[in-house]
Amino acid sequence: MQIAIDLPNDFVVLQSIKEIEQDMRLSYSLWLFKNAKITLSKAAELAALDIYAFIAECKKNEVPVIDITKAELLEELAGMNEI
């Protein structure tokens, strides 16, 4: 699917069309992932990045990759000690 967006000319001169496309793909994939609409791997795919590069972008944009509280993590770790 292709989406067309009209941008004022003064915005387009700041970056190439390819850079704008990549920035929009990244922004949209970060938003979708942050709002739990898609998985990490799908978000990386949409952003046209490998999973490690997408995780780095998440960190840079303060988007949590692991959605677990400290208490939940400690509970998980305690359960592992019982095994």
Instruction: Report Rg.
Output: 18 Å
The first-to-last residue Cα distance is 49 Å
Instruction: Profile the largest sheet.
Output: none
Given helix and strand content, the structural type is: mainly alpha
Shape: elongated
How many strand units? 0
Structural features, described:
With 83 residues, this protein is mainly α. It has one domain (9-81). Helix content is 61%, strand content 0%. It is built from 5 helices and no strands. Helix 2 runs antiparallel to helix 3 and helix 3 crosses helix 4. The relative contact order is 0.09. The model has no long low-confidence stretch (mean pLDDT 90).
Short description:
With 83 residues, the protein is mainly alpha-helical.
Please describe the topology of this protein.
Layout: H1 9-12, H2 17-34, H3 40-46, H4 51-60, H5 70-81
Helix pairs in contact: 2-3, 3-4
